[in-house]
Hints:
Layout: E1 10-13, E2 21-25, E3 30-35, H1 40-46, E4 53-58, E5 64-69, E6 73-75, H2 84-95, H3 97-105, H4 113-123, H5 126-129, H6 132-144, E7 154-156, E8 165-168, E9 173-175, E10 182-184, H7 186-197, H8 203-210, H9 216-239, H10 243-256
Helix pairs in contact: 2-8, 4-9, 6-9, 7-9, 9-10
Amino acid sequence: MEHLFGQDWEIISAGGATGEAFFATNENQKLFLKRNSSPFLAVLSAEGIVPKLIWTKRMENGDVITAQQCLNGREFEPKEMAQDRAAKLLKKIHESRPLLTMLERLGKTPYGSSQMLLEVESTLDEALLTLKAVKTSLSFLKREGSNIQCEEWAVCHGDVNHNNWLLSDTDELYLIDWDGAMIADPALDLGLLLYWYIPRENWSMWLKQYGAKLTPELELRMKWYTIAHTLLSVQWHKNKNRIKEMDHWLNYLTTLN
């Protein structure tokens, strides 16, 4: 990575699970570098959803290095998720035809309730399947699965946690970390955001900012995807031996049923 820059640049790891991300800094500029980032990044940049893509370079070994503008800013606070700017950015993403077209070109196919239920059933281990909260949740998914219908697929982020929302020093809001991007029911993103951050009595108001109406059908879809996502999170944390986090999401399941 160092040979891409002159000696006045410092290259340091940006951390993360893959070890493929770096910061490059000198006196006047700071870039966020990533090795073998998806071509999807270019469309996200063009749509103004992530910080600007500065350049892309293909290396002799076939690796592709991307450099993005590295902005000064901060994570969105949990309470700020109620703001209309979060709702409007998520709506822009869900309505973006260029994003959807690019994921389709990359070979992505819709990830609906049947695919997600199959993933849940094949992922949960025998020990978790003996727990009451897990059994109750799985029964709900199976019982309501045929009632979960998506009329219009969209690009979904899949992890709308507040720490993936970046507010720049110039007051621009971005949604970052798109490694889990999928073509799915918008109710997946909506359910996670509303259940995690918005009091139930304010759901209708938040969805009005987004441009949707809270109907029994949408409410069921959001609940279904949130429960399925939580079950997968429980198993993921267990696999990583993060027992405290696993217990947190197991307890959270009981609030959803």
